[in-house]
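Good day; I would like, with your permission, to put a structural problem before you. A protein sequence and the structure tokens that stand for its backbone fold form the material at issue. Thank you for your consideration; the sequence and its tokens are set out here:
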Amino acid sequence: MQTRPQSLVLGATGFIGRWLLRQLLAQGLPVAAAVRGGSRRDGELRQWLRSRGADDRAMTTVGADTAPGLGLGPGDDALLADVRDVYNAAGLYRFGLTVDEARAANVDGAVHTVHWAATRPGLRRLVHVSGYRVGRAEPRYPLPAAQARALYSRLGAYEAAKAEADAAVRVIAPESGVPLTVVNPSTVIGHSVTGEAGQYIGLADLVEQLWSRRLPAVPGNRRTFVPVVTVDHLARFLAAVPEYDRGPVRLHTVLDPATPLLPDLVASLARHLGVPVPRRVVPVWLVRRLPRSLTGADPETFSFLSEERYDTRSADRLAQGAGLSHPPVEEALRRWASRLVDDRFGAARAA
């Protein structure tokens, strides 16, 4: 008889979620994967895991969504009675969302996850995957309507919803008695060995423009820093969190500080791909004024172009305790870029 799941991964079919599942299964943990789409998605996920060497016999799938109670039926909810670690890697990562779409997927789902986790009698940890550009201020939730409108107008629906969700879980979890860790990863690139990607927006858009020779200049300035983390390192880090974190709320920013500055990163990838190296940089304020047809970039991406640096000390301590270290970042970036080209920037996967 299969052991009942001890971990639940929400967003299990997403880029981060499936690599996290693979890591948990590699550690021999009985895990539940929350999927939409019934048996078809279950079969696709199992095929993906098996093709990457995972033994999926300790995995159970349940139907879940962003509704209250995670949309679980009574049978699935009872099946998850022994869950002690909940990983929320669910969400909608796409630019150009409406406010309602972004909030429903990224805020409401996060809030419902906290409330559901509070019903697990043996809960050890809720691990919420957020983003490195949010969560640095004292959390406030809910925001007054005028402040919420200003936030969404300034950041765009996707990033604003991530910021609102980050604040929401940090406020609600302590009130609900839920031990919480918020993991704030930077741009997640492909696997450090295979380069395999799973999302093709953000920095991947920049690589596509570079490859297609539509990037005459690098947006930002010579000090612009867009840090990255490989998906396999992030998966190992997430899997280690419940073993090491204690206390009501912990926050970790996970990125590789050795990531080259953006102009150097672009130049390195251009040489690797055999395309011209963009020699100029264009200030963000100017890029914002250019038509999208010329820049090829969604305006929401510009807020990620910053000179800021980020405090990774808590993540570094956990990683050291768990015996984790970042793989060589420039090598990982080159493998990722090659794989993006081979996958035709997602077109091959879609086909």
Observations:
- Residues 200 and 347 are 10 Å apart (CA to CA).
- The longest helix spans residues 157-176.
